[in-house]
Amino acid sequence: MDGSIGRFFAVLHHRGSSAPKHGSSKSRRNEGKRQVRRLLRLPKRRLITVRDIVGRKPGAVTEEREEVLRVSNDCVPYIVSQPIPPGKTLRNVVIAIVSKDQGWSSYPSDHGTYRNSWTWFELSVGSESGEKWRGEVVRNCHAHGEFKEHTVKILAEEFYEKAQSGDVLTVWALAKFPGWKNTVKKVTVGYVVE
User: Fold this and answer.
1) Can you say whether residue 39 is alpha, beta or left, with left for phi > 0 and alpha for psi between -120 and 50 degrees?
2) Cβ atoms of residues 62 and 54 within 8 Å
3) Does the pLDDT value for residue 33 go beyond 80?
4) pLDDT tens digit string along 128-153?
5) Residue 90 near residue 160, CB atoms below 8 Å
6) Other CB atoms within 10 A of residue 38 CB
7) Within 13 Å and on the Cβ side, how many CA atoms surround 184?
8) Checking DSSP bridges between strand 168-175 and strand 9-15, what pairing results, if any?
9) Domain map of the chain by residue range?
10) What confidence tens digit (pLDDT) does each residue in 63-84 have?
11) What are the CA-CA distances from residue 71 to residues 15, 175, 176 (Å)?
12) Can you list the alpha helix ranges (DSSP code H) found in the chain?
């Protein structure tokens, strides 16, 4: 797996101790940041937060959990949103995740990249009757032992089409193998309902 996000998500910013090495070009990431700053009228150097994107809009909801959790060889729901209110439609979901990989691996050529990282996050939408949609949000930086923040806007049309009143959004923390540890520090979910 090359670690690219794909067409479902737009990574708005990475914040950590080193510049990310990612599958997409640096110029496209920078252009995306410039467009978001123009839309929000943010200063050039300010980091983009979930509240910057959804907090100014009518119907905006921001939910946050800050608790250190270590996941190894498991899939754990880290945060579950309140249900989408009756008669409302889900719009504009943004997630910020502060997490880290275990900080070591036997693959030095992948260190500091998103290649072959086996700790990641997924987003699902559904209700007690089951999941309607689920997809990968972001992977941790491979063998990077310091916390990094990734802010991601959800672009998948199918996600929005399947979300209905009464559904909840769940952010899952995953680690594929017993030796890989996904350490989560904080997750913020912001969304707008109309």
Assistant:
1) alpha
2) yes
3) no
4) 899 999 999 999 999 888 999 999 99
5) yes
6) 9
7) 28
8) unpaired
9) 9-193
10) 899 999 999 999 999 999 999 9
11) 21, 6, 9
12) 26-40, 50-54, 157-162
- Residue 7 corresponds to which amino acid? R
Cβ neighbors of 66 (< 8 A, separation 6 or more) are 185, 186
Q: How far apart are CA 119 and CA 122, in angstroms?
A: 10
Higher-confidence residue of 80 and 116: namely 80
The token duo for 167 is 């559904």
The predicted model scores a pTM of 0.76
Instruction: Specify burial of residue 27 (Cβ count, 10 A radius: 0-12, 13-18, 19+).
Output: exposed
CA dihedral 60, 166, 150, 66 (to 10 degrees): 90
CATH class of 9-193: mainly beta
Q: Where are the beta strands (DSSP E) in 37-180?
A: 60-72, 74-80, 90-100, 119-127, 130-139, 148-154, 168-175
Closest CA to 6 of 137, 119, 108: 137
Cα-Cα-Cα-Cα torsion 128, 7, 171, 157, nearest 10 degrees, comes to -30
Phi, psi values for residue 152, rounded to 5°: -130, 130
Closest CA to 32 of 18, 16, 17, 14: 14
